[in-house]
Amino acid sequence: MKDMAIVLAGGQGKRMRSDKPKVLCGVLGEPMIEWVLTACENAGLEKICVVKGFRADMIEDYLAARKSKAEISSVLQEEQLGTGHAVMQAEELMKEYADGNVLILNGDAPFIDAETINDALKCHTAADNSVTVVTAMIPDPTGYGRIIRGENGLSAIVEHKDCTPAQLAVTEVNSGCYWFRTADLLEVLGELTNDNAQGEYYLTDCIGLLIAAGKRAEAYTSHDPNVVLGANDRRSLLALNDAARAEVIGRHLENGIEFTCTDGVSIGNSVTIGQGTVIHAGAVLRGRTSIGENCIIGSGCVIENCTVGNGVDLNYVQAFDSVIEDHVKIGPFVQVRPGSRIRKGAKIGDFVEIKNSDIGEYTAVAHLTYVGDSDVGANVNFGCGVVTVNYNGDKKFRTVIGDNAFIGCNTNLVAPVRVGNGAYTAAGSTITKDIPDNALAIERGKQTIKEDYAVKKLAHHRKKLEDARKAEEAEVKK
Fold first, then answer.
1. Number of structural domains, the chain?
2. Looking at residue 162, what DSSP letter applies?
3. CB 116 within 8 A of CB 222
């Protein structure tokens, strides 16, 4: 038996006032659809079909760039004619999975989780249901479709505007997530009509058709009431972010992570953090970031798609798509750009930028230095103001620095160039040729003294100031 998922992602979301599809709007730094796709993958679903519509090119680009565990394809809904019409676009693909079940869920409801998906499927298959609706109990069900249960399971889903007074009192609501027996869904899809005020084909009508055909429908109540939450405008999107932030921080608190203050803290859904780590105010961790044990993530840090080892101390660091090994200390005011690796015990000081470089173990890059496209050995010391000159305006070249080298203050290393093991550069040198092991390289122009140069320069400057003062006084007398 083969199961699959269909993610509905065709809506524009006009109230978002955005030129991108609603599902690409972010929650904790990740598009809403990313949360949904991750939940499907974590639930073990190997085939996912995304129904795209508005700005389909942006959805396609996003899926192409995404590193996926599952096989993800997409179909186009050229006109947005309702949820039932969206599912119709995946009909040919569903036929390949006709002996299994299909999960249908909304790409703008990010809080669906793998546990809910799998538990609902167990309920679905154990009861031999034709359809199982994922529901939640919420204190204020205003605006949501009510779940009406009967003696034999689910009897109806009634939209809020159509509810009787008794039905309005029901607090179990539809999440918009469903497990269907694929063959049964295919049978009734063709029977859908758009005979309604909106002229749209509703997926919920399939449930009524299945019940009318004598098929079994049931509702599974999720443990997490947030599964029903979605976003239609910027206010509700902010509410999603607030809810997600609280949920994720709560999860890490339970796992032994210390937060000195949660003000401004934002941690992505896919971020992992080891026990004993301390997170300070204003830290932003997002993407596929992994933080080790007993780290200090200081204020002002932005860490994205990075692997951080154990015992690392980061303070006002922005790091992207890089690896930071154990017991590294970085900051403040440091940028680690993509493709970098900071090895064990290294120290990176204030106002340093590391780009696409490998910094060796216990190397110190103290301050005011740029290291780009470089391979740096162990126990290297960088003085203040060092620059690896990696770009000639056309191409970029690499610099290689051996173990135990000492790079003097204000040294320019013009790539491609190699500094040997144990080699030194004198302060203020511009190095354009390779330096042998254990050698000292000095490259300084001959100092020239011009006597009384400053006197002439200052005299000219003073005359300009005096002329300006006289002109101002004359203007005042007028």
1. 2
2. G
3. yes
**What's the whole-model pTM score?**
0.85
**Bond into 141 cis (ω within 30):** no
My answer on whether 437 and 361 are in the same domain is yes
d(CA 167, CA 171) in angstroms, rounded, equals 9
CA 260/CA 281 separation, integer angstroms: 7
Among 57, 42, 64, 69, smallest CA distance to 9 is for 57
Dmax over Cα atoms in the chain, in whole Å?
105
Averaged over successive runs of 10 residues, the pLDDT of the chain (478 residues) comes to 93 90 94 96 96 95 92 94 95 94 96 96 96 95 92 88 92 96 96 87 93 94 93 93 95 96 94 97 96 97 98 98 98 98 98 98 97 98 97 94 98 98 97 97 88 80 84 82
| Type of residue numbered 215 | K
Pairing label, strands 146-150, 153-158: antiparallel
Domain final residue pick, 409, 426, 441: 441
Identified catalytic residue from 124, 280, 367, 461: 367
DSSP state of 53: B
Question: Running DSSP on this structure, what letter comes out for residue 399?
Answer: E
- 160 with 259, same domain? no
The two beta strands, 172-181 and 131-137, are antiparallel
Do both 208 and 96 map to the same domain? yes
pLDDT at 471: 86
Is there a single domain that holds both residue 86 and residue 218? yes
CA-CA distance, 12 to 14, in Å (whole number)? Answer: 6
CB 211 within 8 A of CB 93: no
Place of tokens 């605006």: 143
Q: What is the CATH number of the domain that holds 354?
A: 2.160.10.10
pLDDT, position 1: 66
Describe the crossing of helices 32-42 and 114-126 by its angle, rounded to 10 degrees: 50
Do 143 and 69 contact (CB within 8 A), yes or no? no
| CA distances to 13, 15, 233 from 198, in Å | 16, 18, 20
Q: Report the pLDDT value the prediction gives residue 455, as an integer from 0 to 100.
A: 81
Note if 367 is an active site residue. Answer: yes
214 φψ region: left (φ > 0), alpha (ψ -120 to 50), beta (else):
left
Bridge partners for 425 per DSSP: 407, 441
Q: End of a domain among 196, 228, 260?
A: 228
**Tokens at 454, concatenated:** 């400053």
CA neighbor of 78 nearest in space, from 7, 178, 10? 10
How far is the C-alpha of 277 from the C-alpha of 326, rounded, in Å? Answer: 13
Domain hosting residue 106, numbered range: 4-228
263 and 198 inside one domain: no
